[in-house]
Amino acid sequence: MLDDFKEKNVKATFFMNGHGFEDHCIYDYANVVKRAYEEGHQIASHTWSHLDLTTVSETEIIYQLETLETAFKKMIGAVPTYIRPPFGAQNETVRKILKDRGYKLFLWDMDTNDFKEDLQASINIFDNATSASPQPTPHIILNHDRVETTSTFLGLYEANEVLKRGYKITTVGECTGKPKKEDWYKDIGEPQEPDETWVCTLEDMHLPPKLPPVAPPVSAQPDAVPPPQPQPDAVPPPQPQPDAVPLPQY
Questions:
Q1: pLDDT digits 0-9 by tens, 111-169
Q2: Is the pTM value of this prediction over 0.85?
Q3: Among 60, 120, 168, 243, which residue has the least CB neighbours within 10 Å?
Q4: What range does the domain containing 54 cover?
Q5: Residue 147, domain member (yes or no)
């Protein structure tokens, strides 16, 4: 995707997780993150492990922010100040913490649902949405570059289509009137060299505990009926007897 964007001279904003999946650690992609930053793309936060911030404590919200800030500072030498909360979930507490830490919160107006990995469905959503709301209406399109069909096809398809329609593809920052890196980051300095701290662990994800499996319901059984008991042979009822006839007297 970075190669395609470089060829077309377009910029994008990448909202990144640190450790959103057990087998995906941002430190393993440090060279990609650094390249995107150096080529002028905007690097932004999507929290460390993609928890719904409205369901966790304030301490956990700060952990999700700070842990990713530390990783970005190591890899690119700067801390992003733009964020997209996981699932777009936010409430008063989340917004207050983000504001206090200098973050600018962004969502989207077009969701391609590419995470479902149905490429044709995503193309249809994109085509229908852009046709219904054409240029000069601006759009923030939600894609997931971790999805292979997005990074190898959908992103380029969207870029080609919007360029044909007269759009300029740019970062969220520039789109909202903040085109300079100084507006996108804080603590701008030099990246660090990799060391033993550039790792992720299952524990750092702070995943909620898994609930024990629920046993399937057991249907109620009627009370057992005792088996029939053997009956003695039926005895015929007594038959009525004729009145006794007196013996003749001689």
A1: 999 999 999 999 999 999 998 888 788 999 999 999 999 999 999 999 999 999 889 99
A2: no
A3: 243
A4: 2-205
A5: yes
* Count of the separate structural domains present in the chain: 1
**Phi, psi (5° rounding) for residue 73?**
-60, -40
Q: pLDDT tens digits, residue range 206-224?
A: 998 876 776 676 665 555 5
SS3 230: coil
Tokens of 189: 């300095």
Helices first, then strands: H and E counts in the chain: 9, 8
Within a domain: 223: no
CATH number at residue 14: 3.20.20.370
Cis amide bond preceding 228, omega within 30:
no
Residue 79's Cβ-side half-sphere holds a number of Cα atoms within 13 Å equal to 13
Q: Is 212 helix (H, G, I), strand (E, B) or coil?
A: coil
State the maximum Cα–Cα separation within the chain, in Å, rounded to a whole number. 151
- In angstroms, the CA 11 to CA 169 distance is 6
Question: Does any domain span residue 239?
Answer: no
